[in-house]
Design goal:
homodimer, 373 residues, DNA Polymerase III, Chain A, domain 2, nine-stranded antiparallel β-sheet
């Protein structure tokens, strides 16, 4: 194997695929990236952790064909320290030699035969093409509400549904729920049939990062019984379709509210961060007291002391005291772009909705925590 | 105790003294800062880890006198989240209440009686006043060559000597030595007698950071048998004078060299960082080969592979191959401001000197490592 490629192309390719490598795992080859020549002017990079694989193509001038695996981290370190010039890579037995101007590196690798086979072929019976921008915006808005992916439960996934030209995405765990709806141009293989999938929040987080490097106006998604393939520009992500029942989350969202507050987002962030200095670290409860166009926040830490802050808000309903884990609220506030947010309430024990004033198609539901005393 | 102070003044004061606090130590009070009113318009902040204490004064409008200790970290967090406005602090039994606009914090503290006494009084028999700028420049240039302070050996200290108007500072461990000489205006209590002290490199590193916050053209240093007090602006650092024999380091520095290279600093940094991707992580050896106006660098890692790089330099002497721990060289290169540096050599086993071309009063001596094969 021998080829010449641009430093930036090769480094970007490594940055994209290395998210699927397994560092310090039982199989050393999983820390490596598989490099294969494709014809005379492309090479293909693959990394996998079995559950999740990333494959990308980059332009190269292939001098002789072949394949080999090299440690992704070392390769990234070397490339990031070289200037953007032409990189020569040549394979000799168990080492690949990279040369660039006055620099030369012999890197010890592992034979391509030891690299696991990635099942990437898919029939295009169930396929959808969607615009990148609304799709990644929706991911950003809901992904933090999913349960940790170490739980391996359906709640660690995000439900995506495209029905005609409406994309709905939702994530939910025991304490919070995020739902967003976006109008999209959707070209599915069967435009009438809704396209639905439950996909790991980890994979979607990686897709977000890849979408910043890869440059593509649309994303194609192929779905089979057990597998999903996502194509963005020259990059392909292969992951399993999550199994199990996702909750019928829409029924958790109250339809009517007896109380409503409108709050400046940045004021609320600052006040919450101040009050949070003095909360019980076990439950992170901040008490919200709404009354007569003011919102009083307070925290109480058994060891450190207590804290209070007050904001001017729009609130004309009956007074209400309600407790929240402030971290969930900050998570939402740091995602929304709107200057003001609406808080929709019923009682101190009912699900509460946080939504940007400018975009009610995005909502964050937070379950309150019971206040003592 | 009750006072009003500016947020910025109070926060800067906390930032200065908190470097001496002990977090998660056996004595909880050492994580706290002692706050005392001084007359009607100042308060005094003190923190100590017994070995090393920092005391600073800030302006305040004292309403009623008193003293108390509060957790430095919490206090810093609270102040950093408030805007720069007037802060009210009032003591009630075991809590101090801070109010600022709409924010209020009750912070649990510890009685001032539990705070250790800091022996800060000093006779001014042996005292020196020195300009801040050359003094801190010298610290920055030598402090990284000292042995780790966990060793508690004299080598973890920095030797400072002022003789008439020459400041000499040096640090040395088994592998490297840094020495700098600066011309200073020196006002010592006895201008004829050299002023010499061995002071912990940790304390000097903290002094560097404090000098960025405190604003003072000169630093005063008082020396007693066992104690040193450093005054910078309204801040006082109290530390013990280190005991033990510091090596006569000047005799380690060769006077003549048979070979000399002049190397561009940034080129050498880039090449070293590239080659360092492939070094043995146990000894960090990079081989330097000087010959005929070129410098070839190479690294070799038993697991990962090897690396080579070549630079154009000025070198007209006989060829020489010599090995160094590249980390020591990078440490020096990242401190110096000079565009080019001089490397003065004798043989592959002799002490080698690195010095900025523009300032030969600063030198870094590195002992080479024997190369195999």
């Amino acid at each position: 194997m021998k080829f010449v490629a641009n430093r930036d192309d090769l480094l970007n390719g490594i940055k994209i695929v290395e998210r699927a490598t397994v560092v310090k795992g039982l199989q050393p080859v999983l820390a490596n990236v598989l490099i294969e020549t494709v014809g005379t002017n492309q090479i293909r990079l693959t990394a996998t952790d079995f559950d999740f694989s990333i494959i990308t193509l980059i332009n190269a001038d292939v001098k002789s064909e072949g394949k080999f695996t090299l440690p992704a981290k070392k390769l990234g370190e070397i490339l990031s320290r070289l200037n953007d010039e032409l990189i020569n890579l040549e394979l000799n037995d168990s080492t690949a030699t990279i040369t660039c101007r006055n620099s030369k590196f012999d890197i010890i690798g592992i034979s391509a035969n030891e690299f696991p086979l990635v099942e990437e072929n898919i029939s295009d019976t169930d396929c959808m093409e969607i615009e990148t921008r609304p799709f990644t915006k929706a991911i950003r808005e809901v992904v933090s509400a999913a349960a940790g992916y170490e739980t391996n439960s359906p709640l660690s996934g995000v439900l995506c549904e495209v029905n005609k030209n409406i994309l709905e995405m939702a994530a939910v765990d025991g304490n919070k729920l995020a739902r967003v709806r976006e109008v999209v141009k959707n070209t599915s293989s069967d435009g009438e049939k809704p396209f639905e999938m439950l996909i790991s929040s980890k994979v979607l987080s990686e897709l977000l990062k890849i979408s910043l490097i890869a440059n593509s106006e649309t994303i194609k998604i192929y779905k089979e019984m057990k597998k999903i393939v996502i194509m963005i520009d020259k990059t392909k992500i292969v992951t399993r379709l999550m199994q199990g029942q996702f909750p019928k989350y829409n029924q958790f969202i109250p339809q009517t509210f007896s109380k409503e507050a409108i709050v400046n987002k940045n004021d609320l962030i600052s006040a919450l961060e101040r009050v949070a200095v003095m909360v019980n670290e076990k439950n992170s409860i901040v008490k919200f007291e709404f009354a007569d166009n003011t919102l009083k926040l307070s925290g109480d830490s058994p060891e450190a002391g207590n804290s209070q802050d007050e904001l001017d808000v729009k609130y004309m309903s009956e007074p209400l005291a309600i407790g929240f884990n402030y971290k969930f609220i900050l998570e939402f506030l740091k995602i929304v772009e709107s200057e003001d947010i609406t808080i929709k309430l019923n009682s101190s024990l009912s699900a509460t909705i946080f939504t940007p004033v400018s975009d009610e198609d995005y909502l964050y539901l937070v379950m309150p925590v019971q206040l003592r005393g």
